[in-house]
Inverse folding.
């Protein structure tokens, strides 16, 4: 099978989500562009790669030094983190999830961070419960 990735962008105040479809080596996923000192919540939905009945047990995001993470949240198969972008340029965020079967899944998501600073630095909202 091949990846059939689709990026799902939700209106401001919601998650910018990257959804995985099918199975293969590496999807080409991207989140919406952002600005230096800008921030938002970003998500990856692992539903398309998990086995039937499998759930995400734990996960981690790695911004490669381009952003600082305020919080993370897991809702079913969707892994979410809130980032503030501290460096400009093209960044790759690695997201790794551990499934209930013991299998691990990793995806790289691209984002472009503009060198133009956000007019108002974003402050992370309260972590979802």
């Amino acid at each position: 099978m091949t990846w059939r990735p689709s990026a799902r962008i939700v209106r401001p105040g919601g998650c910018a989500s990257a959804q995985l479809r099918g199975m293969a080596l590496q999807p080409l996923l991207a989140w919406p562009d952002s600005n230096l000192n800008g921030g938002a919540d970003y998500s990856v939905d692992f539903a398309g790669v998990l086995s039937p009945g499998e759930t995400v047990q734990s996960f981690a995001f790695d911004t490669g030094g381009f952003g600082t993470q305020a919080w993370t949240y897991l809702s079913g198969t969707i892994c979410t983190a809130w980032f503030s972008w501290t460096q400009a340029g093209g960044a790759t965020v690695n997201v790794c999830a551990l499934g209930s079967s013991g299998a691990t899944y990793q995806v790289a998501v691209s984002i472009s961070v503009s060198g133009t600073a956000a007019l108002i630095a974003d402050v992370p909202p309260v972590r979802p419960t």
Observations:
- The first strand starts at residue 6 and ends at 9.
